[in-house]
Amino acid sequence: MTEKKRIRAVAIDGPAGAGKSTIAKAVSRALGWVYVDTGAMFRSMALFLLNRNISEWEQAEVSRAVADANVVLSFADGEQRIILNGEDVSDRIRDERVGNAASRISIYPEVREAVMKLEQNAAEKGPVVMDGRDIGTVVLPFADTKIFLTASAEVRAKRRAEELRSKGEHCETEDILRDIRERDERDRSRETAPLRQAEDAVLIDSSELTVDEVVRRILALVRERESKETLR
Q1: What is the largest CA-CA distance in the chain?
Q2: Distances (CA, A) of 16 to 39, 131, 185
Q3: HSE (side-chain half, CA atoms, 13 Å) at 29
Q4: Does the N-terminal or the C-terminal CB of the chain have fewer CB atoms within 10 Å?
């Protein structure tokens, strides 16, 4: 990804729980583009470490171990599946413990480098919708449409709690709110690729918006940009 040219991609960045994956999937379906869930890649790395009883706090051990994690993206009907060392772990990586571990290891340069290569390889194969923390700033800096999607920490915690309860899982909203605030601080303060809004990204606060309203806004931006390209 060294060539400085715009690429056909929608890059959606934002904090944990902002609804990036839900929005990105809906946008990809509407456009007929491939959806790349970058968070799932970090989660698969975290699951690999947890399976090996390697603490996410031990940077040296984590950095050595990730070289043995063979993560493969598989796409079926536009949906991404994650294959970790030959096993489909697409459902297992959604565990809350895995998500918290993924946030912690994502600060390590060796982990980010491994995941970034997967992300960029996916983008090179065609138009994609990709969400994460540093897609528009680091991974795909030349994406032609960039979105920074956010919501208040309280709204994000409430949404996550409702999601978990709908699955029959017990949770406390206050615990989730605390985790979200801690994750926000880690993501913003890490030395490698901190969470920030790209200069050319459009800010969308979804605190008082429905999923459909956010999707319509993004699709309008994509179509406006493509219309301008056609007229050139």
Answers
A1: 56
A2: 10, 11, 11
A3: 12
A4: C
Tokens representing residue 32 in the block: 């007929």
CA distance 206 to 183: 19
Per-residue pLDDT of 71-96, as tens digits, reads 888 877 667 789 999 999 998 998 88
Q: Please report the pLDDT score of residue 3 as a whole number.
A: 45
pLDDT number for residue 191:
78
Which among 88, 99, 87 has a CA at the least distance from the CA of 180?
99
> At 127, which amino acid appears?
P
Encode 100-134 in three state secondary structure.
HHHHHHCCCHHHHHHHHHHHHHHHHCCCEEEEECC
For 126, the token pair is: 């065609």
DSSP letter at 65 equals: H
Specify burial of residue 79 (Cβ count, 10 A radius: 0-12, 13-18, 19+). middle
Tell me if 221 sits within 8 A of 202, measured CB to CB.
yes
Q: Rounded to 5 degrees, what are φ and ψ at 219? A: -60, -40
Structural Rg of the chain based on CA atoms: 17
